[in-house]
Amino acid sequence: MTAATKDRDTQEVPGRFRAFPIAAGVKCHAGTIACVDASGNMTKGITATTLKTVGVFQQPYDNTGGAAAAFMAEAAIGIFGPFANSSAGDLIANADVGTDCFIVDDQTVAKTNGSSTRSVAGKVHMVDAAGVWVRFS
Q1: So where are the chain's domains?
Q2: What pLDDT digit, counting tens, does each position of 72-115 carry?
Q3: Residue range 8-36: average pLDDT?
Q4: CA angle 79, 117, 92 (to 5 degrees)
Q5: Which end of the chain is more exposed for a tag (fewer CB within 10 A), N or C?
């Protein structure tokens, strides 16, 4: 394609919320890390390498007895927290602001990928006494 030679109608899709079909057999709590699994279904954050973080659940979803894609679930993007900070060598500090942090579980993030066992949660935005604030985009 060649460069534009006239104005074009570039449209915007409101992007604060994302919706995906829910994964089978999951219960997701409001305020926790929301991911999409390898099948494209929304699930909660866990230690795994196949997840893509899509935001934070704004309400609870319970599909513990349901099939994949039984309904749609929604997550919001933005800066959220505080999430629990990991411990020892995986503790996130203010020096880590702007770097990736990694999913330990649906409410905990870590500094490292756990020897290639964890998916990226988002970018560290801030660390305070309450925990880690993460930018989900």
Answers
A1: 17-76, 78-136
A2: 999 999 999 999 999 988 999 999 999 999 999 999 999 999 99
A3: 93
A4: 40
A5: N
Token digits of residue 50: 């196949």
Pairing state between β 33-36 and 42-44 = antiparallel
Residues 6+ apart with CB under 8 A from 110: 86, 90, 92, 101, 102, 103, 104, 118
Q: How far apart are CA 19 and CA 41, in angstroms?
A: 10
pLDDT of 14 over the 90 cut:
no
- Whole-prediction pTM: 0.90
Residue 15 in this model has a pLDDT that exceeds 90:
no
**Both tokens of residue 35?**
């991911």
> Which amino acid, residue 38?
A
β pairing state of 78-85 and 100-105 = unpaired
Q: Strand runs (DSSP E) across the chain, as ranges?
A: 17-21, 27-28, 33-36, 42-44, 52-57, 61-62, 72-76, 78-85, 100-105, 108-110, 120-128, 131-136
Residues in the chain: 137
Contacts with 134 (C-beta within 8 Å, 6 or more apart), sequence order: 79, 80, 81, 83, 101, 109, 121, 122, 123, 124, 125
